[in-house]
């Protein structure tokens, strides 16, 4: 059962330590909103129309695997348990909105988890493409390949003046949303992050702590705010540049911290590593805060005991939904999950331990 | 220079993990107050008299090494630096009161650090004997051997009705004070310690957190309150029994904790071990709190990574005075000492690491 494999996998190939600027940039994402002609948006469609949308898209999407040279999992949302949906949300492969059970919703997810296509969310079709590090162009190219393939088989709603028609006017035009996840402990520790968050709207950017993960993780999501009036290439370029500049800020902050306030932060990094290595109980919130410090310590060359890959696996495989699913028990108490999480984290750190 | 060796040594043979009931009882101590006839107590003596007291006692104490078969360090207090005095206080080999610089004070300390004799503190002579675990009889026998040897050479102030005459009436009679240091995390965690502290005066006992070390260390000192009206043997017997009973209480508390509230305490034990293993900065107060948890974890069979001996060495060799003396720099800042302490603790844990 392929879905089970997808849910149990402890790695996401796009959430790793490879890619450009991977000392700061975790991953890049591009999402395209597309709709079929002459059918209402899902929010306004009746049951028969929702079925028709699915039936139109399904056979085309079924051919995507052959086109792109990798298998896709076809997942009917209403066949998933609540826990399975939770795991897919944790892995950022489906949206929270998509996970609300509505009829005729489909997800097509590529074997390498870099492409996720949602049918009958807000739009008929949402094409998501994720890639590691600062790689918006690469993510956009992959999304475009999917888009081109679909447009070759189906008529999509497109207006010469307006561009792609979408359920929400904010997506009108290119139908493109791009975002980047950054790890910004340096800007947090030097208290520069507020400044960046506050000034970003003037640059047409939104900078927010990544949802679903505590602020202690120091993950921030940067996305473009405007979709109208720019070409796709301009939008990608703008965001890529902005993310690169924030990454440069982050590096300067880290460098400053390596001179000033060094001792306190190094102590905190090592304590985090000590607690992760030995604790018998960890909440998800605490986990993220500790893991962020450890990752920062690895990036700064302070911690050499484990390889950076441990980070990506912990972020995926030590989460509530994942652990419940792996334990095949959705009724675990908070205390039980915290104990299982601590045990899992110790095992992961052991697995990624360096020699010597 | 023998004093230097004594100060630098990271072990105290009486503060270890051997001895009876050593899972709970750290050490036992007996102190005898003695005075020469026809000379005033030091607090009332003039300079010439203080010199006379020292000159009378010094040649007799010089023969003690041969008598007891181990060398003694003869330490003239006014030749010590403030830092050296601090280290001797930390090691409980001299009292804080004795460390106040007054002329003609001498300390004779045996090579195994189990006997410490102070000249011209409150009394002409204070004989202290320390031994590991619950071993008051053994400590008393050793103190008595010293006492017998001195009485064989000198006339001591003794009244047929009152017993030994002492500077403070509370020591009158036998001149004996006995005390035991216990490690009581179980009674602290189960909140039974207050009860024991509060009811102890009714049993003629004083139970207090050990001075000079934070309460987080869970060290308690139990001593007899009454010296008059009991024979030496009765006093020793009473305290030995009381300490044994408190140790039994402590074991029951630990057992209860191994069933109830197990998870939280185990997690705390492991976190303490993780922080001690990796922290880059530790205050003395935090150190004691963490070390107490680790020792408790070792005693409970939870931590098997290090042998119990690490505990005794950390308690001696990670203290402010000791570290400054070892670094030969009494002007280290608090931050510097905290960093050196953390480094020292890591080295000690490494040294006592078990195989496998």
Automatic annotation (TrEMBL), chains A, B:
InterPro entries: Arg_Kinase, ATP-guanido_PTrfase, ATP-guanido_PTrfase_cat, Gln_synth/guanido_kin_cat_dom. Belongs to the ATP:guanido phosphotransferase family. It comes from the Bacteria. Pfam families: ATP-gua_Ptrans. Residues 24-253 form the Phosphagen kinase C-terminal domain. This is ATP--guanido phosphotransferase. Keywords: ATP-binding, Kinase, Nucleotide-binding, Transferase. GO terms for biological process: phosphocreatine biosynthetic process.
């Amino acid at each position: 059962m392929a879905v089970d494999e997808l849910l149990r996998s402890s790695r996401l190939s796009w959430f790793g330590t490879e890619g450009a600027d991977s000392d700061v940039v975790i991953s890049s994402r591009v999402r395209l909103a597309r709709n079929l002609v002459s059918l209402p948006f899902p929010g306004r469609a009746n049951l028969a129309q929702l079925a028709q949308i699915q039936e139109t898209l399904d056979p085309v999407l079924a051919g995507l695997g052959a086109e792109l040279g990798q298998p896709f999992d076809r997942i009917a949302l209403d066949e998933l348990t609540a826990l399975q949906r939770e795991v897919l949300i944790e892995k950022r492969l489906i949206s929270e909105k998509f996970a609300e059970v509505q009829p005729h919703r489909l997800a097509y997810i590529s074997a390498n988890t870099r492409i996720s296509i949602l049918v009958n969310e807000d739009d008929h079709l949402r094409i998501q493409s994720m890639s590691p590090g600062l790689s918006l162009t690469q993510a956009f190219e992959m999304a475009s390949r999917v888009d081109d393939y679909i447009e070759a088989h189906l008529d999509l709603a497109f207006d010469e003046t307006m561009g792609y028609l979408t359920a929400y006017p904010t997506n009108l035009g290119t139908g493109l949303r791009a975002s980047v996840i950054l790890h910004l402990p340096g800007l947090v520790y030097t208290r520069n992050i507020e400044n960046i968050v506050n000034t970003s709207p003037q640059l047409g950017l939104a900078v927010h702590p990544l949802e679903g993960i505590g602020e202690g993780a120091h993950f921030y999501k940067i996305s473009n705010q405007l979709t109208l009036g720019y070409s796709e290439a301009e939008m990608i370029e703008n965001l890529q540049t902005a993310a690169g500049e924030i990454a440069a800020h982050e590096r300067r902050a880290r460098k400053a911290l390596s001179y000033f306030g060094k001792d306190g932060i190094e102590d905190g990094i090592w304590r985090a590593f000590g607690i992760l290595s030995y604790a018998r109980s960890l909440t998800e919130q605490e986990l993220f805060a500790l893991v962020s410090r450890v990752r920062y310590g690895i990036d700064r060359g302070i911690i050499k005991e484990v390889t950076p890959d441990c980070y990506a696996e912990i972020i995926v495989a030590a989460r509530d939904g994942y652990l419940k699913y792996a334990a095949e028990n959705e009724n675990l108490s908070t205390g039980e999950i915290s104990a299982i999480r601590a045990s899992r984290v110790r095992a992961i750190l052991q697995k990624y331990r360096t020699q010597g």
